Amino acid sequence: MSDKNKAILEAANAAIAQGNYEEFLSFCTDDTQWTLVGDKTLQGKEAVRQWMATEYVKPPLNIVANLIAEGDFVTALGDLTIKDEEGKATHYSYCDVWCFRGGKMVELKAFVIKTKVKDESSNAA
Question: Reading across the β-sheet that carries 40-43, which strands appear in turn?
Fold first, then answer.
């Protein structure tokens, strides 16, 4: 089961990278719950859809360093870059713990930390 869940998460992440948020949501249960630790909890697919519409103005760049799966859980560790409407990038490191039910993502606990990187505009001539 855990290898199947890893493959599902990889497919879901590929959909996000392409900006296909509805395809991503097809991998989630209708009652999915996302806990963004220290921030908020999103209840249900519609709440996630609305959050993605404001947070992922442009498809994020997600670099997954590790995927660890056991039973109904898959943990993803990596780095994320999100650009706003003006193209300004914000960088994060994260650890996502996904719980699966019936081949779909039912719960997420996301530990996300904003990271500092060298200012990309400082090298402009």
Answer: 40-43, 28-36, 104-115, 89-101, 73-83, 61-70
| 118/88 Cα distance (integer angstroms) | 13
Size (the chain), residues: 125
Write down the pTM of the prediction.
0.88
CB-based contact 11:17 (threshold 8 Å): no
**Per-residue confidence of the chain (125 residues) as pLDDT tens digits?**
789 999 999 999 999 999 999 999 999 999 999 999 999 999 999 999 999 999 998 999 999 999 999 999 999 999 999 998 888 999 999 999 999 999 999 999 999 999 987 555 544 44
